[in-house]
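Still learning. Show one?

>
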Amino acid sequence: VQLQASGGGLVQAGGSLELSCVASGGTFSSYAMAWFRQAPGKERKFVAVITWSGASAYYADSMKGRFTISRDNAKNTVYLQMNSLKPEDTAVYYCAVVPFPRLIADYWGQGTLVTVSS
């Protein structure tokens, strides 16, 4: 499975960004998909996960109410809508295939950098 993330960039605090991740080489509609992020000098952390059908989604506490994960199985794409961004959201964001409910990635995308300025 290959994952290609995009949509990162520079945004001011309070702004919004939508990340996308396109999957190829597998059966996308059978995978749970997740987003993780890694801030400079820190370990990679879980952000959000969505089940294969899109019926359920779960978030890290600090993202609840600000981030929304969604998917379009017809487009082999998972999204992360990020609102009310804060400087501490600055990180490289990675999409991943995960064997939900376990949150250990089977496959990683290459990451997309989000920078939130204050």
Remarks:
- DSSP finds no helices and eleven strands in the chain.
